[in-house]
Amino acid sequence: MSQRSRDPLRATLALAGGRGAAALSQALGRGSGTMIGGRVALRMDPHVLATVAGGRRPVLVTGTNGKSTVTALAAAALSPGGAVVTNATGANMPDGIVTALAADRTSPLAAIEVDEVYLRAVVEATAPRAVVALNAFREYTRGVSLAATLAHWRQAAARLPADCVALVNVDDPLVVWAFEPAPRVVGVAGGLGWREDAALCPACGAPHEWSGVAWSCPGCGRARPEPQWRIAADAADRWAIEHPRGVTPVTVAVPGRTGPVAAAFALAAADALGIDLTRAAEAISAVVDVDGRYVPFPVGDRRARLLMLKNPAGWTEALDLAIAERLPLVLAVDPFGPKDTTTMWEAPFDRLAGRVVPVTGGRAADALAVLDAAGVAGREVADPARAVAAVELTGSDEVVVACNYPAFRRLSRQFRAGTA
Ligand SMILES: [Zn+2]
């Protein structure tokens, strides 16, 4: 299954070339060189991914939303089984994965985030032990259609090794369909806040019927499989994950429903590798920061929690988080080509009715138009720190700042430097 390099010398040269390019890139001030090193190595030897995997059979994590968080928790969950290599910086295309694996050739375990459209190549090169499939939403940033991604996943699923466990979100009918060809499927109740992309059955085209989280297709009879892993209960910030072996409590430093869902997938991945679940849950609970994503920034006398949103599903989750946790919300939207506000138009901003929402960023006027169409009052505040200061607090000192991609990058930088 694994395509090991047939020429060790070529792989060695390719990796040396990659390191040279990375060093050169750094010296020229073109960033960390994470991508270019792997890219050069792959060009010199297409089998280099198999070579750097070195027989290590990773846990792969894919899906449109939430990959980085699940990968970080999966890396923690695997850690009781030995040292874990991971691509924590989110370099999730083959070049970034090559770079991550080449930088650590000794760790016996690997938790790797994989961009949706490269899953097949990574499966073929690494023969994974487990694949986590989170969700499938339309995504505008790369120009690959949802249908093409699903077809690609079906090919990848058919190529999984016989002993590989596909950990599939049973709440997303598209993911369930895409992983039908997988030899072993284990269901996880991962939730689906945004159903519009899954309105039609991908197999027969009939409209799905929903009853609570249960979905079924009147055309072909497909229906939500019973999950083996589910979120059982919550008490304060403590969650319980229910699974075939019992119930495992876990705490997660990730806000909203995202936390326990990521923990459930991470624990299921650890279980697939035979790792003790109590120790895996302890390791997950010890994670306090996922790549700086969920740690609120102090802004004046408040704390700003930045969320990066790239599709209607993401915006919907952010709105639901602000509503469920009664937190004030600020929108930050910067220029991002024709995709500036495309993803916002379909999200249910009408749920914010009654609030006044400060809007900041270079595309604030467009975001205000989205709010206006949803019947929500917004007002532009050019300075992001002032926008955070402009909302009325509701108990806590926390403010949710819902950002598109470029605004997330800019505000993270500014708030971190305290120069906002
Ligand atoms: Zn159907």
Verbal overview:
- The chain is of the alpha/beta class and 420 residues long.
- It folds into three domains: 1-54, no CATH class; 56-285, UDP-N-acetylmuramoyl-L-alanine:D-glutamate ligase, CATH 3.40.1190.10; 297-417, Mur ligase, C-terminal domain (Protein-Tyrosine Phosphatase, Chain A), CATH 3.90.190.
- Helices cover 36% and strands 19% of the residues.
- The strands form four sheets. Strands 2-3-1-4-5-6 form a six-stranded parallel beta sheet, sandwiched between helices.
- Helix 2 (34-44) crosses helix 5 (94-103).
Mean pLDDT: 89
How many runs of DSSP E, i.e. beta strands? 17
Task: Write down the Rg.
Answer: 22 Å
In spatial order, strands of the major sheet run 2-3-1-4-5-6
Question: What top-tier CATH class of the largest domain fits best?
Answer: Alpha Beta
Tally the helices: 14
**CA-based shape:** globular
Number of domains: 3
Structure, briefly:
The chain is an alpha/beta fold. Helices cover 36% and strands 19% of the residues.
Offer a few descriptive terms.
binds zinc ion, UDP-N-acetylmuramoyl-L-alanine:D-glutamate ligase, Protein-Tyrosine Phosphatase, Chain A, six-stranded parallel β-sheet, 3 domains, 36% helix, alpha/beta, disordered N terminus, 420 residues
Topology:
Layout lengths: L7 H20 L6 H11 L3 H6 L5 E4 L4 H12 L5 E3 L7 H10 L5 E5 L5 H8 L3 E4 L12 H13 L6 E5 L3 H6 L5 E5 L20 E3 L2 E3 L13 E6 L2 E6 L2 E6 L6 H15 L4 H9 L11 E3 L2 E7 L3 H13 L4 E4 L23 E5 L3 H10 L3 E4 L3 H7 L7 E6 L1 H13 L3
Parallel strand pairs: 1-3, 1-4, 2-3, 4-5, 5-6, 13-17, 14-15, 14-17, 15-16
Antiparallel strand pairs: 7-8, 9-10, 10-11, 12-13
The structure holds zinc ion.
